[in-house]
Amino acid sequence: MRKLVWIINAAEVVKTVKAGKKLQGVIAWDDKQGMITIKANNPPGVKVNKTSLLCRTDFGKVTETAQFYNVNEHFPKVLGLDRLKKAFDRDAKDAKAAIVTNEIIDRV
Predict the structure, then answer these.
(1) In a designed cystine with 54, which of 33, 62, 70, 107 is the match (CB 3.0 to 4.6 A)?
(2) Which DSSP state fits 9?
(3) Residue 30 and residue 18: Cα distance in Å, rounded?
């Protein structure tokens, strides 16, 4: 039994396959034509956020992306309130210094 398949943008599909690239597509039944249609679908590549580590603090780290500076800190509860406040202030001061240092290096 012979089945007919209609490929939309066949020239583009053949060109992509000959180049050795993978091709994503949508296969569907077309009632108007009475056959299976294949439509090539090449979505744009996934953009990956590139983060760079600026510094490590005592309880966390400071990273940089294209749009943001990220400060991640995790403090243990066993420190107590007074030591926790001091550790938080010290880590915030270190994070600020790392960001300023990075800005100075980038501008030079």
Answers:
(1) 62
(2) T
(3) 27
**Residues paired with 25 in a beta bridge:** 40
pTM (predicted TM-score): 0.53
CA quadruple 102, 87, 51, 66: dihedral sign: negative
> Mind listing the pLDDT tens digit for each residue in 8-24?
777 777 787 788 887 77
From CA 58, how far away is CA 83, in angstroms rounded?
Answer: 13
Q: Is the distance from CB of 61 to CB of 30 less than 8 angstroms?
A: no
Are 52 and 63 contacting, i.e. CB atoms less than 8 angstroms apart?
yes
- How many residues does the structure list for the chain? 108
Q: Do 64 and 98 touch, CB atoms closer than 8 A? A: no
